[in-house]
Amino acid sequence: MLEQLNYGLFYLINATPASPEWMIDIATFFAKDLISIVPVLAVILWLWGPRNQVVAQRQLVIKVAMALAVSVLMSFALGHLFPHDRPFVAHAGYTFLHHAPDDSFPSDHGTVIFTFALAFLFWHRLWSGALLMVVAAAIAWSRVYLGVHWPLDMVGGFLVGLMGCVSAAILWSLFGEALYRRISHLYRILFAIPIRKGWVRD
């Protein structure tokens, strides 16, 4: 039943040789490059921002990192426990993006971007989480559209991201504050010169 749904949704979304080239180009950008918003935004939040919000921003970055660590580990385990061929390996649809023929479930890109978006939804602002959810949906769509993932790979990434955020919330309640203090101390040592020159926040 699920497999039939997976195939049905895939053929509904997957591009064909008749698809417009500009759509293929946009999807390729979404699939390959849009994920870079994760490290870029994390660095910006840690290094800069209003002085009265820096602590909250840095705690958010640590929570996100914890959630990502759990999610990626869980994704790795699920991929080995429930191996599933990618569409092009199963000779389904059309492929417009080169990819290694490794396991597809759950999607690594989906896991990372959905974890990131959910973290902002839970721990930052509703608007930022909603905006990142749009980005996550675009990445998820693009990788199915280009033929390197199944729709349920993305659903799996979302659910793994949700479990990663729940786990991170539990871990933060146990030792989050102590971890924040240690990382902040290490940051001030390593970035002493940029901090002193005012290039980044203390």
TrEMBL record:
Entry keyword annotation includes Membrane: yes
CDD domains hit by this protein: PAP2_BcrC_like
Reactions mediated catalytically: di-trans,octa-cis-undecaprenyl diphosphate + H2O = di-trans,octa-cis-undecaprenyl phosphate + phosphate + H(+)
Amino-acid biosynthesis listed as a keyword: no
Alphabetically ordered keywords of this record: Membrane, Transmembrane, Transmembrane helix
Domain Phosphatidic acid phosphatase type 2/haloperoxidase: 61-169
Any GO MF annotation of the entry: undecaprenyl-diphosphatase activity
Cited Pfam families: PAP2
Known EC number: 3.6.1.27
UniProt GO cellular component terms: plasma membrane
InterPro entries noted in UniProt: PAP2/HPO, PAP2/HPO_sf, UPP_Pase
Bilayer-crossing regions: 26-48, 60-82, 105-123, 130-148, 154-175
Record PANTHER family: AT30094P, SPHINGOSINE-1-PHOSPHATE PHOSPHOHYDROLASE
UniProt protein name: undecaprenyl-diphosphate phosphatase
Organism: Enterobacter cloacae
Lineage: Bacteria, Pseudomonadati, Pseudomonadota, Gammaproteobacteria, Enterobacterales
